[in-house]
Amino acid sequence: MLTLANDLSRPLPMVRTGAVPAKEEEAAEIQTLPVKIDIRGLSIFYGKFRAIAEVTMAIPAHQVTAIIGPSGCGKSTLLRALNRMTDLTPGAHAEGDVILDGENILGPGVDVVPIRQRVGMVFQRPNPFPKSIYDNVAYGPRLYGVRKRVELDGIVERSLKQAALWDEVKDKLQQSGMALSGGQQQRLCIARALAVEPSVILMDEPASALDPIATLKIEDLMQQLKSEYTMVIVTHNMQQAARVADYTAFLMIDGERAGRLIEYGPTSRIFTKPEKKETEDYVTGRFG
Amino acid sequence: MTRTALDERLCQLVAEVLTLGSMVEQSAKDSVAALRHHDTAWARKIEARDQLINTHRFTIERGCLALIATQQPMAHDLRILAAVLEVITDIERMGDYIKGIAHIIPQLHPEPLPRHLPDRLDSMAEHGNSMLHRALTAFAAGDEQAARAIPAEDDLVDELYGEVYHELAEGLTAHPESVDHYTRLFWVAHNLERFADRVSNICERTIFTATGEIMEFSTSGGD
Fold first, then answer.
1. Would you state the pLDDT for residue A10?
2. Is residue B222 part of a domain?
């Protein structure tokens, strides 16, 4: 696997851009982590409008990385670029590289279907299909050709257990997923994403429609899942980023309304000792 | 966007830290005067005042915890609160050193003190107080430069302590029968020396608040 430490052919991703702090101890800590997604000079355009500009950051494997910033700064656009969901917006195109496990997913001729299998997505509002709990989770595996009932049973159970929902639904798997509470529906959507065995889970404001208890369950779940998956979360809620994320990236729009990466580093530092004034103003609530 | 409520409360807390510091300054000044005049009633008042200092410190601590719990301070705001919690501990401890002096005064013999001792103890308290006062002013202003300069002045207090030590050692050699009396006077000087040492901690916290850097000045004595 590509690591920041052994890839000496290029400057260290965490220190090569002005947006990224070059603190020695921090760089040393990050260098030991394998890179899951290496974003290099990424810009996303909607028509002529550049929504994010020249973002360069390395997302470490098996960590939770949060993307924070004011409304309209391009957080969700950046997140969606990581599994090419941005392709679904007419007129959108990308420049730069998004290198997933060493492969540039923005490269020519790349098939997006296996990418979206490897990089799952959970949205702001729980969006279970109007199907049974079982069929919601089995949907993806069936799409990828799993037909044997016993195999599907195993996938459904494993996914629901990983999403911390199994105990609550194991006796009613044939009931509609729509009948679950909001928090349960969101965990069902996480189970659905896990069922196709991705290695990265993207979450776009996954708890913003949930009550505080359901929110804490989702946050606990993120901590549990990171041992097996790389997690990237977009959140408006700075306290949530502070609670769940190992690394935090702060985005803000520039004079041309394009989102730029202002600062990126360990969450504890971003919230106690940010390097940039813009980050300080945002995390202390004096801007945004 | 502004955070008026948080900003106001932070200012109030820092102002309360200055008040706490001035209470300790007054006690330090009084303690060496009470010692010079062997005024045991005054000494008891100083000892009693320590309770007020402790109470005020806890009030500030509760204020910090309430702000952390209710306002979710981050970055510089969080560093101020973390620093206030540390600084009030140091100030309260400085108050304890002075209380220790006040406690010793009634135990001293009502006989003339060694010739230079009262003036030297006055100077130690005065320098310590001056350092404390300026350290807290720098803390309130977030003046990193002043905070980096003040701890070096501790050398002067250490020098005075050396002079007091030698004077007391000579006195003890000449009057071995007054060993208790001299030992207690050693403690007075020791407490004033430690009092000044603590100022460095406050300066360290000012630097932390301003820059985020957690550092330690090397001091002559340990704690």
1. 35
2. no
State whether A272 and B75 contact (CB < 8 Å): yes
Topology annotation, domain A24-283:
Rossmann fold (3.40.50)
Q: Which residues of chain B have pLDDT under 70?
A: 1-2, 219-223
CB–CB of A284 and B77 under 8 A?
Answer: yes
The answer to whether residue A284 neighbours chain B at the CB level (below 8 Å) is yes
Q: What is the pLDDT of residue A17?
A: 34
B155 found inside a domain: yes
Distances from the Cα of B178 to the Cα of A41, B113, B187, angstroms: 80, 12, 15
Domain membership of residue B221 (yes or no) is no
Structural domain for B100, as ranges: 4-211
Express each pLDDT in B140-157 by its tens digit: 999 999 999 999 999 999
B6 touches chain A (CB under 8 A): yes
At A26 the pLDDT is 65
A273 close contact with B: CB closer than 8 A: yes
Q: What is the pLDDT of chain B when averaged over all its residues? A: 95
Residue to substitute from B68, B70, B74, interface A, most A β-carbons within 10 A: B74
- Give residue A248's pLDDT: 97
Question: Tokens 């000496």 map to which residue?
Answer: A8
Q: Is A287 an interface residue toward B (CB < 8 Å)?
A: yes
Q: What is the pLDDT of residue A18?
A: 33
- By C-alpha distance, the chain A residue nearest B211 is A273
Chain B residue with CA closest to A280: the answer is B75
The CATH number given to whatever domain includes residue B200 is: 1.20.58.220
Task: Please judge whether B74 and A273 are an interchain contact, meaning their C-beta atoms are less than 8 angstroms apart.
Answer: no
Residue spans of chain A under pLDDT 50 = 1-22
Nearest chain B CA: its distance from A236 CA (Å)? 15
SS (H, E, C) B78-128: HHHHHHHHHHHHHHHHHHHHHHHHHHHHHHCCCCCCCCCHHHHHHHHHHHH
pLDDT value at residue A32:
78
On whether residue B220 sits in a domain, the answer given is no
Q: Evaluate the CA torsion angle A80, A85, A90, A94 in order and state its sign.
A: positive
